[in-house]
Design a protein that fits this description.
Elements lengths: L6 H5 L6 E2 L6 E3 L6 H7 L5 E8 L10 H13 L7 E4 L12 H18 L4 E3 L11 H4 L11 H7 L6 E5 L2 E5 L3 E4 L2 E4 L3 H13 L6 E4 L32 H9 L4 E6 L5 E6 L2 E6 L17 E8 L4 E7 L8
Parallel strand pairs: 3-4, 4-5, 7-10, 10-11, 11-13
Antiparallel strand pairs: 1-12, 2-15, 3-14, 6-7, 8-9, 12-13, 14-15
């Protein structure tokens, strides 16, 4: 299986809102279409970082999910061109929104055990909605006063102190967002006011010459959201605010002020797509668990994304199948 497409082939990738229909997707940022000119102009372009984006692992004791997570981590680290770093896109465990403390503990213990045993790479974490403990109080039995309630448990497991943050590496600036906003006993995809203000300040103080990658669990913008469920069954498109950021207009208006925001990566939908809008590329990068460890989800097998970042602010993305076969139980 070919994991990495030739750069010249990448430059020929159609730019637009694309829902990929294969298990291996290649893409590159949008610049001129003249392939020969690109080759001449990009002789000094060098890759500065290679990321493996693993999202929606949804590990649980059932369906051999721990073995599947281990198989994925082994696959990543056995690549001839191994990534420098892992980006965990959230929903690390199957679910804690609706689970009691004992069931949540079992899942986190399994996740930590597999990660420690199977990965030696540095890792950056993002909180997914299913990593949040107890918001569905009727099922979790939580009161809201527990020490680990909400996102505190996930923060402790990830060893981080803030649900949103940024850092610099290899000439790029990275922003990690928290997409899950409480909405009754469930959630909606948006940034709270404190986080949005922080994001605006963070982008403003980042030099214009520094390219920016943003990771969120839930997509800011996605074509695949239209195919997550049957959004058209009423005779009109109805895409829930839990499937894609309800504040996407506000965020894209902010990005418009900062043309060095190059690429946003997400998961959540367990589907693979690419949307290019107003100079920003939005990648939804499938799921390690596929159809929640029940096999392929719609057109997409269990997999992860490889993202190459270059010193001129360009990038490419491949979606890689790691060969997992679902078990019956």
């Amino acid at each position: 299986m070919k994991y990495e497409m030739n750069r010249r082939d990448m430059l020929k990738t159609t730019i637009g809102a694309t829902v990929a229909a294969t298990g291996l997707v290649g893409a590159t940022s949008a610049f001129a279409a003249d392939d020969s000119q690109q080759s001449a102009d990009r002789r000094d372009v060098k890759r500065v970082l290679r990321i493996a984006h693993l999202t929606d692992i949804h590990v649980q004791p059932e369906r051999s999910a721990g073995l599947g997570m281990a198989a994925c981590l082994r696959h990543v680290q056995s690549l001839p061109d191994k990534p420098d770093i892992l980006f965990n896109g959230g929903d690390s465990i199957m679910d804690s929104l609706r689970q009691d403390k004992a069931r949540t503990r079992v899942q986190w213990d399994l996740w930590k055990r597999v990660l420690k045993a199977e990965s030696s790479l540095p890792i950056v974490h993002c909180i997914g909605n299913h990593d949040v403990w107890g918001w569905t109080k009727a099922k979790s039995g939580c009161t809201g006063n527990e020490d680990l309630y909400g996102k505190k448990w996930a923060l402790d497991e990830f060893g981080i102190t803030s649900r949103f943050r940024s850092f610099d590496r290899a000439g790029w600036h990275f922003v990690i967002l928290d997409s899950s906003f409480p909405d009754g006993d469930s959630y909606k995809a948006k940034l709270d006011e404190r986080q949005f203000e922080w994001l605006a300040e963070d982008l403003a103080k980042t030099p214009n010459s520094t390219p920016i990658l943003v990771m969120s669990h839930i997509p800011i913008l996605s074509a695949a959201a239209y195919f997550d469920g049957e959004c058209e069954k009423t005779g009109d498109w109805k895409v829930p605010g839990a499937w894609i950021h309800i504040d996407a207009r506000r965020i894209k208006d902010l990005f418009n002020k900062h043309p060095n925001v190059k690429v946003c990566i997400s998961g959540h939908l367990h589907l693979v797509d690419r949307v290019d809008y107003n100079g920003v590329t939005y990648f939804c990068n499938g799921a390690v668990s596929g159809n929640w460890w029940k096999g392929r989800h719609q057109e997409f097998d269990e997999g992860y994304a490889l993202i190459n970042l270059f010193n001129d602010g360009t990038f490419d993305r491949d979606y890689v199948r790691y060969g997992w076969k679902a078990v019956d139980a």
